[in-house]
Backbone:
């Protein structure tokens, strides 16, 4: 059984990267909805962030953007920021 297992949080991260690309393309400065990058496949949490805040989160490839209290296995909470939280994979 070869191949790579794609983690749910990586699927959500990929979707967020596409959202960020559109934001960059259109030059939007206002907060837009990004997806919670937790491990729950049934999570529909949306996190309103500006591109600047999102890019700051994404500056560390081990960090994931989640709704407060949402978890990713094998990750530790880094910082709750009110409307979103950062977790870092170990």
Residues:
């Amino acid at each position: 059984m070869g191949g790579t297992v794609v983690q749910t949080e990586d699927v959500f991260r990929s979707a967020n990267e596409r959202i960020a690309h559109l934001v960059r393309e259109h030059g939007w400065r206002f907060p837009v909805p990004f997806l919670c990058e937790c491990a729950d496949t049934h999570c529909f949490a949306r996190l309103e962030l500006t591109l600047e805040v999102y890019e700051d989160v994404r500056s560390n490839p081990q960090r994931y953007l989640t709704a407060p209290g949402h978890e990713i296995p094998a990750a530790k909470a880094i910082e709750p920021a009110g409307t979103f939280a950062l977790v870092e994979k170990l």
